[in-house]
TrEMBL record:
Keyword Signal: yes
Organism of origin: Rhodococcoides kyotonense
Pfam families documented for this protein: SBP_bac_1
UniProt-recorded name of the protein: Sugar ABC transporter substrate-binding protein
KW Signal (keyword) present: yes
Amino acid sequence: MRAPRKAAVAASLVTTLVLSGCAGAGAIGGGGSGTTITVAIVSNSQMADAISLAPSFEAENPGIDLKFVSLSENEARAKITASVATGGGEFDVVMISNFETPQWAENGWLTNLSEYADATPGYDEDDFIPTLKESLSYDGSMYAVPFYGESSFLMYRKDLVEAAGIQMPEEPTWQQVADAAAKLDNPAGGVSGICLRGKPGWGEVLAPLDTVINAFGGRWYDEDWNAQLDSPEVEAAVQFYVDTVREHGQAGAATSGFSECATQLSQGNTAMWYDATSAVSVLEDPSASNVVGKIGYAKAPSEVKGDNGWLYSWALGIPTTSEHPDDAWKFVSWMTSKEYLNKVGNELGWERVPPGSRISTYEIPEYAEAAAAFGPLTLDSIESADPNNPTVDPVPYTGVQFLTIPEFQDLGTRVSQQISAAVAGRISVQDALAQAQQYAEVVGKTYQEGQG
C-alpha cells in the first residue's frame, strides 16, 4: 500500500527537524552509579504519575538508574524523530504513537519487543486490546507497547441536556449533535453549545475533523492516490464542522485544542465536547473538574458511516541504537505491565489509571467501579476502531484520524492551517479546501510515480 520511498522521506524530515532546532527538554533523575536508562517521555499527567512512581522500579532494579527527558507533545515528536532517525543514540526508551511505530519499524529504527515480551513471564502481550496491538505492530511483531490507548467519543452535560428536553442517543448522528448544540447554546449564560478543536496541527483540529470527514463519506485519496479534498463529501463535512463551531462553539475556536476544550467542559463553560476518550482523566477528577458525575458519554457521531472513533496510543519503544536494550526493556515492561496499573490505582487513585491499553484493566473491580460511566464505552470504541478500513470508499492508506504515511506530518499541518483559518473566518471553506487539495496533490503524485 505504501510506496517504497520511506527512507528518503524520513531523511528529509530529519534534516528539517535538526535545522529547526528541537530543544526544551527537562531532565529528571539519573546520576546514580548503575547503568543509566534515558527515557524520552511526553509531559502529561499520566506520564508525570509514572515518573513519580519510578523510584520503586529503581529500588527493585538496583543496577539501573532512570533519567527522564520530559517534553511537550510537539517537542517530543520533533526531538525523538530527529534522534531516532539519525541514529543519535541519546535515548534508550522513547514515547511514540501508533503513527510512528509501524513506519519506524519498517525503517529498522526500533527493536522487536515481541521477542522480549515472549521471554518475560506474566507480561502477557495478548492482553493488549487487539486493535491497539495491531496498530503498534509491523510484520506480526510489536515494536512499541502501549502505555495508554484512546478512541474518541461525545461528552455532554447530562443536566443541561435534560433541561433542554433533548434525548441524547447512545449513537448520535452529527446532525443530531448540531441540533443539540443549537438548543444548548447559551451565550448570555456563558455556556457554548459545543467545543470542537480549531487549533492548527495534524494532531489538533485534524484529529476530530478527519473522523467527521470519514463519517460524511469523504477520504483524502482514492485508491490511485488522486487527492479528494475538494470532493463534495469532504466539502460537506468541513463546512458542517466549521459552521457548527462558528455558530454554536466556544469563543476563540481557531486557537482551541484538546487542553482548551478540556478546560471549557470541566469548568462548566460548554455543554458538549467531541474528543479523546482520555479526557475523562480531567473531567472526572474532583481536583480539576467542576462537573464530576454530570457528564454523559456517547459513541463518536455517525452520518453516512458509523464507528468513527479514532485510535491512538502513547507507547514505549526501544531504538535499535540503545546500548542497553535489556535494561531498557525491564523499565518498558514495568511501566506497561498489569502490576503497574494496579500500583497506580492503589497508590494514586483508580481514576488515574492509564486507560485503554489492557483488556484486564476493565476486569479490575475497583477500576470498573471508578470507570462505570465511561469505561465500557471507551473499551468498545477502541475495539471498534478500524484503521485498515477508515472510510466508506476504499483508500490506499491506513489510519482513522491520520494517514500512516511519513508525509502526513507536513501535509496534515499545512491542511490544518487552512482549516483553522476557515474556523477563524479569515477564508471560506471552499478556498481552504482548494489550497488543501493542491498540497495533497503534490504528495499523491509522488506515490503515483513510485507505483509507476
